[in-house]
Write a structure and sequence with these properties.
There is one protein chain. By secondary structure, this protein is α+β, with helices and mostly antiparallel strands. Helix content is 36%, strand content 29%. It contains seven helices and eight strands; from the N terminus they run ββααααβββαβαββα. The strands form two sheets. A five-stranded antiparallel beta sheet has the order 1-2-3-4-5, sandwiched between helices. Strands 6-8-7 form a three-stranded antiparallel beta sheet. A hairpin with a 3-residue loop joins strand 1 and strand 2. The longest helix is centred in the middle third of the chain and has 16 residues.
Length: 177
């Protein structure tokens, strides 16, 4: 298991064979996909094919990572950094199984990803895109110190564009603990 980083309750690791089962469940939930342009995989086999063909770890040196609870070993979703076409700044993204909503996992995994991006990778800027109606995601970004800088699109949805730099993140952490 290739662990990328961790937080107090979570391990963030690369996807691996067998993850297709929970990824299938994740993308079958219309509430989870509500603010994305993604569609359900259709079968566990299709999700497993996605896992086998997910090459951004090799091509980009980062990616979306499985969020694994340390206490149970169960996957609760994914979080991580990924370059989007045409943007030189990594994008922070996350998605959780509905059973994991409201427990602070998104914020915890996002902060671990941010620390990894700024610390281990030395990226100068992170971005995030969120549909404004997705209040839970907006709250996560703000808790992490992201600042809204404009508008963009997220699939078919108008979205807000957020950014975070190491200096802003450090100041935010100092002010908010």
């Amino acid at each position: 298991m290739h662990i990328i980083t961790e937080s107090s309750r979570l391990l963030l690791r690369e996807f691996r064979p067998g993850d297709g089962a929970w990824l299938y469940v994740l993308n079958e939930d219309p509430d989870v996909l509500r603010y994305t342009s993604d569609v359900p995989y259709g079968s566990v086999e299709v999700a497993e094919t996605f896992v086998r063909n997910y090459d951004v770890y090799r091509t980009q040196g980062l990616g979306r990572w499985a969020m694994i609870r340390k206490d149970t070993g169960a996957a609760v979703g994914w979080c991580g950094l990924k370059y989007q076409p045409g943007d030189p700044n990594p994008d922070l993204g996350y998605r959780l199984l509905k059973s994991a909503w409201g427990q602070g996992y998104a914020t915890e995994a996002a902060q671990a990803s941010i620390n990894y991006g700024f610390g281990s990778l030395g990226v100068p800027r992170l971005i995030a895109r969120v549909v404004p109606e997705n209040l839970a995601s907006v709250k996560v970004l703000r808790k992490c110190g992201f600042v809204r800088i404009g508008e963009t699109v997220l699939g078919p949805h108008p979205a807000d564009l957020y950014e975070l730099t190491p200096a802003v993140y450090a100041a935010h952490r100092q002010a908010h603990g």
